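Hi W., the adenosine monophosphate complex you wanted:
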Amino acid sequence: MDRGSLGSTDALLQAIVDVPGYPRPGIVFKDITPLLADHDVSGRLVAAMGEPFRGKADKVAGIEARGFILAAPLAHLLGVGFVPLRKAGKLPRATFAEGYDLEYGRATLEVHRDAFEPGERVLVVDDVLATGGTAAAALRLVARANGVPVGFTALLDLGLVAVREKLGGTPLHILHTVAS
Ligand code: AMP
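Structure:
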């Protein structure tokens, strides 16, 4: 399919596949793998995610795992370094950790204690916002590690909750919000 002539939002929506019932009944999983496989579309969307933050971030932090895939090229595009925010127990050196609620149970994100110089401006990246719990934990974690969260960007907001309130004053740049 030639998505090259479409606007960014249309290209985004055409390149993401809804998978109803995955990983559990009642969930519609947003599969971004077709988007990632399209060089033109992924390049345009990564650029669109970063546009408001040009010259305003010193590091880009990606949330494991799909956030990594978008955050690494975005860091390169903005000319800054990439920092992984990983699931518990994956980083080899001393970490800070932040727990957060999932639909069932809890999870933890970790970052290396020396990932940021004090006061570095950090843009946090993920693919999809659902309840906002993961994003909120990521922003708290950056602050714990002496970074200054200057923004959060993602491809999609599923429109489930008032995410802006949950994420406080951090500027949000979400390419598309799904009507709930
Ligand atoms: P939440 O913490 O509820 O905002 O969930 C966001 C995290 O879970 C992100 O890292 C997403 O990759 C993932 N996620 C949640 N719901 C979905 C969904 N319907 N499709 C794809 N990923 C999702």
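Residues 27-30, 63, 66, 126-135, 158 surround adenosine monophosphate (CB under 6 Å).

W.
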